[in-house]
């Protein structure tokens, strides 16, 4: 009976220990993700025109999908900050444009803020040399804008588009390294 009890206790302790390790790892990842989001927001706010008066704010949960895929693709932290910044800009621009309805009290402001953010996205991407990403996303962004102008406000999965770009980029790098 004592041996059975000690086996149960050691198994139970192992389960608890594993759960605690997973919790600590998850808390560490959450801290790193928050730091990446804060760094992206700082970078964006430093570059965005203060005259525009736009405050970019997205909750960490809105960024989780992108952060998880960036981790899966082993993107370095510096590039994560840039790609997260691009994601934040495009998501915010889409949110401003989704607020546009004929009787919206701030219709003009929403249109202008969304348009400004789309042009800021291009400036930001050029500054941080993400032109290939811009070229890759351009057709899907244009299609989304056309759908929205026609009243179709279905949610877009921008993170999936960025993931597809990263996969294509990796294939291209693989082909280039094989050629060398």
Q: Approximately how much beta-strand content do the residues carry?
A: under 5%
Topology, number of strands: 0
Largest sheet: none
Q: What string gives the helices and strands in order?
A: HHHHHH
CA-to-CA gap between the ends?
A: 66 Å
Number of contiguous helices: 6
Q: Report the average pLDDT across residues.
A: 80
**Shape verdict:** globular
As a whole number of angstroms, the C-alpha radius of gyration is 22 Å
Poorly predicted regions are: 19-25
Helix content: over 70%
Task: Return the structural class.
Answer: mainly alpha
Report what the structure shows.
The protein is mainly alpha-helical and 180 residues long. It has six helices and no strands. Helix 2 runs parallel beside helix 6 (158-179). The longest helix is centred in the N-terminal third of the chain and has 46 residues, at 2-47. It is globular, with a radius of gyration of 22 Å.
Fill in the keyword field for this structure.
180 residues; mainly alpha; 79% helix; globular
Topology:
Blueprint: H1 2-47, H2 60-72, H3 77-98, H4 107-127, H5 131-149, H6 158-179
Helix pairs in contact: 1-3, 2-3, 2-6, 3-4
Compact overview of the structure:
The chain is mainly alpha-helical.
